[in-house]
Amino acid sequence: MNLGNNIRKLRFEKGEMTQQQLADRIGTSRMTIYSIEMGKFIPSTLLALKIADVFGKSVEEIFFIVEEKHDRRKNRK
Asked: Tens digit of pLDDT for each residue in 21-54?
């Protein structure tokens, strides 16, 4: 399982907010925002709540579980 998110979409809906602007508003780095958007970093609960607050959304509206599709080819003998 992976954690997906709608942060990039929400940034653009919020007047094309940059990663840096979001990072400044929640007290983190631009690289952290980039890493979260790319699914390389799972934010802490506090960081997720801060992001949700910026966009006026619930955490569940921003973050979601992505099930990995099972690749049948890997199990062939």
From this structure: 999 999 999 999 999 999 999 999 999 999 999 9
CB 37 within 8 A of CB 19: yes
Evaluated on CA atoms 34, 37, 39, 42, the torsion sign reads positive
The CATH number of 2-66 is which of 1.10.260.40, 1.10.10.10, 3.30.360.10, 1.10.8.470? Answer: 1.10.260.40
Q: In this structure, are residues 32 and 23 in contact, taking their beta carbons and an 8 Å threshold?
A: yes
Q: Domain map of the chain by residue range?
A: 2-66
Q: Which residues, in sequence order, are bridge partners of residue 63?
A: 5
